[in-house]
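SEQUENCE-TO-STRUCTURE ENTRY
===========================
What this section holds: a protein sequence and its matching fold, both as plain text.
Question of interest: how does this chain fold, as expressed in C-alpha cells?
***
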Amino acid sequence: MSLAAVSDPTISDLLTVIITTSPTPSAPSTELISAILSSFRNHCRSLLSCRVIVVFDTYDRISSHARLKKGQVTPEGARTFNLYKENVKVLLLRELGGADHAQGLRRGQGEAEFGYSGVEANSIPLQTLQTADNQITFIEPSQRLGFGLAVRSALRLTETPFVWVQQHDWPLVSDIPVESLLNVMRLTESDESKPVKYVCLPSVRLLSYADSAHVVEFPMLKTFTASLKRDFATESGTSIPLTPMFFWHDKPHLASTDHYLSRIFPTRLSMLRGGFIEDTVGQRARNQMKDGNWVKWATWLYYPDNGSRLCLRHLRGRTWEGAEKESVKKAAWMERNVKQTVN
C-alpha cells in the first residue's frame, strides 16, 4: 500500500514486526516468544496490531553436544525444535490473528541466496506460510540461514516503510513510544545532516552510551555526539531523546526498510550464511563512522532519562531452559551454597 494514498497512516500501515527465532534449550515451550508478546502488551501495545513476519531459522547438524551459535544441536534439540515451531505458530495465530487465521494458510516458496552466484549450493530454499490478510507470515528455511540472512528474507516480504526487528530473547522492560519514534523517522527522511534511519533500544551495556568509552575515546564520535544528540520534536508536540549510535546492533531496533536493504544487503555478497549483522557489516559501519561517515548509516540510540533508563532485558536464549527449569537450577545452586557455608 502506498502511503501517498493514506492521509493519516496507522502504525500497521507504517510498521512490520520481524521476529527471528531458532533452536533453544527451552523448546518446545514457547516461553521466549510469550515473554516477547507480554512485553509488547505491557510496554508497546500498538506493536500487536502490526503485521508480523516470523523466521524459524534452523540448525546445520546434529551432534552429541549443542553449539547453537554454530548451528549445532543434539538429537533431542532437533526433535523439540520441530515441536517448537508448531507451538509458536499456534501461539501467534491465536494471540495475534484470531481463530479464523489458523484456517487456509497460503503456502509459498522463496530462496535465500548468498556468496558467489556461480556456486549452486549458495542458495537455500524457503517455505512460507501466510494468513489470507498477510497479517502473519512464517518463513522456514530448509537449511540454517543465520541472523543476517533471516532478517533479509523477512525484509523482502515486508510491504511497510519501516520494520521493528525483534530477536526472540530480548523482551521490553520499559515503555517505548513507537508512534513518536516513527514520526521522527518520517519527519527527518529528507534531512541530509541528521536523518533517523535506525533506532536501537538500550540494553544494560548501552546505558549512558553517549559518555561511554565507545564514544569519548574517539574524537570524531565525540564530535558527532556533541552536535547531534538532542530531543526531536514530533508533530504531536512530544519530545523523543536520541543520541547517535556508532554501530548497527542486532538487538531490537526500528529501521527504514529501504535503508536496511540498501545499506546492509546491497548485494548477495554482503552477508554469508550463518553471519550476524553486528559481527560483519556492523563492524565496517563503525569503522566508517570513526572516519567521519556517520550520515551514511544514520544510526541512533533511544536515550530516555539521558541514557539512564533500561528498555531491554536479555533472556539468553542459547542457555535459558525456561522458567521452571531455571527455578530448579537456582534452587539447587542455593542449596549447594548453603551446604558449603555450613561445612
